[in-house]
Amino acid sequence: MKIIGIIQLLSITFVHFALTLANVFLGDNIYYAVNCGGLAHTDLNGVHYQADPLRVGIASDFGSRLTIMRVDPRDAILYQTERYHTEDFTYTVPLPKDDGEYTLVLKFCEVYFQSSQQKVFDVIFNDEIVIADLDIFKEAGGIGVAYDRLLTFRGPLDNPKINAFYIYRGPKTDIPFLRDILFDEEIEEEEEEDRFDEEANVKLRTEINRFEDEPVVEDPYAEQDTSHMFIPFLIAFACFFPVLFCLCKL
């Protein structure tokens, strides 16, 4: 089965994004934006996504049960909702009136499959494959991980889907990157280290309390009668003078 989706616009630049933590305001240059399968939303970069106008296919919020990595929680909704279909479906976008460079940003997140090779499709623009065999789970690094690419699609494995997209008037260098996935892992490592430290402190406090609560062990020699230990010394001292007297007589 061949499934093709085409988005019409004047000029599109394709790019893969990686890492940023700073918010860049893009709102003034957004030409068109849709939160696929979801309601209207304005993200931290000022991009206003309209509610999904499409009625073809299935709108799903299955991903709302997941915590989405690589994106601020306030914008997770863009990756938690999606539109998918078993047949062809198309978002038709009117051509921009102004000439210039435009960047199409499409957002993906695998929210259902838990391994690669379950949802694979080609990226197509104007009937040409620009990305072959896109596997969201593999490229993103797992389930619930935000992944941005610029694309239209078709697919032989399962049904293609899309979470959100927008068209920005300007170069791709203006687009803020996604957070690096290690950002979340480092937080988890720090939390794990803090947990181990706290467990060690609790164990140490427990040991201290245990020692403080235990009864004091009595010294077995404290009450022992040591007076008999001086008797040999007294006898030796008494014998010393007679021996000394006899030696002097010689």
UniProtKB/TrEMBL annotation:
One of its GO terms (cellular component) is endoplasmic reticulum membrane. Residues 31-153 form the Malectin domain. The chain crosses the membrane at residues 229-248. It is found in: Endoplasmic reticulum membrane. The keyword Nucleotide-binding does not apply. Keywords: Carbohydrate metabolism, Endoplasmic reticulum, Glycoprotein, Membrane, Signal, Transmembrane, Transmembrane helix. It holds the Pfam family Malectin. InterPro entries: Malectin_dom, MLEC. It is a single-pass type I membrane protein. One of its GO terms (molecular function) is carbohydrate binding. It comes from the Eukaryota. Belongs to the malectin family. PANTHER family: MALECTIN (PTHR13460:SF0), PTHR13460. This is Bm4089, isoform d. It comes from Brugia malayi (Filarial nematode worm). The lineage of its organism: Eukaryota, Metazoa, Ecdysozoa, Nematoda, Chromadorea.
